[in-house]
Design brief:
There is one protein chain. The chain is of the alpha/beta class and about 300 residues long. About 35% of the residues lie in helices and about 15% in strands. It is built from ten helices and ten strands. The chain has helices at about 40-55, 70-85, 100-110, 120, 125-135, 150-160, 180-190, 210-215, 240-250, 260-270, and strands spanning about 10-15, 25-30, 60-65, 85-95, 110-115, 140-145, 170-175, 195-200, 225, 280-285. The protein has a six-stranded mixed β-sheet with strand order 1-2-10-7-8-9. A four-stranded parallel β-sheet has the order 5-4-3-6, with helices on both faces. The longest helix has 16 residues, at about 40-55. The two termini are about 30 Å apart. The structure holds pyridoxal-5'-phosphate (PLP). Pyridoxal-5'-phosphate binds near residues 72, 147 and 174. The site of pyridoxal-5'-phosphate (PLP) has 20 residues, from helix 1, helix 2, strand 7 and helix 7.
């Protein structure tokens, strides 16, 4: 890469490129973290920045982390590891060896993949400890949780706020673990801005994000919009796919069905329902993850 100092640009989008929802005189901008790197994508780059700096400062040589078979985080870690000369090992949820474009790229970047059944996968500290115990050089190995969920992740994501040249009334992000949301809140709290922060969980039952984010950043302040998961993680509906096709073809900004499609749909829907005051300035964080399309070819 990819210096860890890159600042992603902000793109203004006139009206989502779609027929603007009635009464929606709001201004929408997109923070283009999707442009940071094709595979150390968006918020994964933000989340790995301080974890890798911590790893290297502590003299460790290998990172061990965790993810599902389509995990953007596994791929980001594999790629960042290759760039920084850090060996990577990924525990993959599901005990059948699978071959898909994301895991294949992980392998190409040199990540060693270990498949574990869903029950064993749940206790990541235990998996890590038993891996380290049989390792030739246990002191070399660094733990990064699933999705990069960590205090270091919030440091990296908080920097997004410092990169902004304009003030916004609202900032929106997609949520999986809540670390990105927590980091944005941290950045806003430090800045003293009155910007309202919003999270759109992409999985069903996303209310847990409230606590997950506040555990990383005590006092984190945001609103969750729980009704845009479209049936659950990586689930989709024709309405979502149609929105994505219209949005991408009209704006040239690629979004995908797992994270950013749901996020942009949520903002579009809230605009249409009159949620925002006229003249509101809204920033959407494009958190990358465009490999999310690789598993979706059939539905398109
Ligand atoms: C992983 C991911 C997220 C989820 O971020 P969290 O910090 O886990 O909430 C959001 N968007 C994209 C594109 C992702 O890959």
């Amino acid at each position: 890469m990819i210096s860890w100092e890159f600042h992603s640009p902000v793109t203004n989008i006139a009206d989502f490129g779609l027929a603007r929802p009635a009464g929606a005189d709001v201004f929408v901008s997109v923070k283009r973290d999707d442009l940071i790197h094709p595979f150390v994508s968006g918020n994964k780059w933000r989340k790995l920045k301080y974890a890798f700096q911590d790893l290297q400062a502590s003299g460790k040589k290998e990172v061990v982390t965790f993810g599902g078979a389509w995990s953007n985080h596994l791929l980001a870690t594999a790629c960042a590891g290759a760039v920084h000369g850090v060996r990577s090992t990924g525990f993959v949820r599901g005990d059948e060896v699978v071959s898909n474009p994301v895991l294949n790229l992980c392998r190409v970047y040199g990540m060693e993949l270990i498949y574990v059944d869903r029950t064993t996968y749940r206790d990541k500290k235990l998996l890590f400890d038993s891996y380290v115990r049989t390792h030739a050089k246990p002191e070399d190995v660094y733990f990064i949780d699933e999705g990069g969920y960590s205090a270091e992740a919030t440091e990296g994501c908080a920097e997004i706020i410092g990169e902004l040249d304009e003030q916004f009334d609202h900032i929106f992000c997609a949520c999986g673990t809540g670390a990105t949301l927590a980091g944005l809140s941290k950045g806003l709290l430090a800045s003293g801005l009155s910007t309202r922060l919003h999270g759109v969980p992409v999985l069903a039952g996303g209310a847990f994000i409230q606590e997950a984010a506040q555990e990383l950043v005590p006092g984190a302040d945001f609103e969750l919009h729980l009704d845009y998961h479209f049936g659950g993680y990586a689930k989709t509906k024709p309405e979502l796919l149609n929105f994505i096709k219209r949005f991408v073809s009209a704006t040239g900004i690629l979004i995908e069905p797992v994270y950013t499609g749901k996020l942009f749909y949520a903002v579009y829907d809230l605009i249409g329902s009159g949620y925002f005051n006229p003249g509101s300035r809204i920033l959407i964080l494009h958190s990358g993850g465009l490999t999310g399309f690789m598993g979706q070819q059939k539905i398109l």
